[in-house]
Write the structure tokens for this entry.
Amino acid sequence: MIPLDPAYLVGTGGAIGALCRAVVNAHIESETYPLGTLAVNVLGSFVLGLVTFASAGEEIVLLLGTGACGSFTTFSSFSFETVRLVEQGESAAAAANAAVNLVGSLAAIGVAWLAVGIVLG
């Protein structure tokens, strides 16, 4: 197999992740709570967990982990939306957003760990 340039792998994965994120955000909309960002963060954490715990090769990690998951998930939007909720006087929603993103993403990584353990034994 011909080794691919790491920048090509990350860039290709980044394009895939960005497109997938746009699709998720277009289909999961909420005017009161940033559900699209929550969904991409949790799902992206799960996929990154799968790639990591399955001990995928370096090229797969660059394509899916660094590229796709890196552009699919978003810390900046999560932070911005949390601050925006505070500015709108929705402190409880902001705290819930922070907690659910953190706990949901960590739980998704845990589920990925269990799934890889079951499949790979």
Notes: The chain has a mean pLDDT of 95. Residues 28 and 116 are 28 Å apart (CA to CA). The radius of gyration is 16 Å.
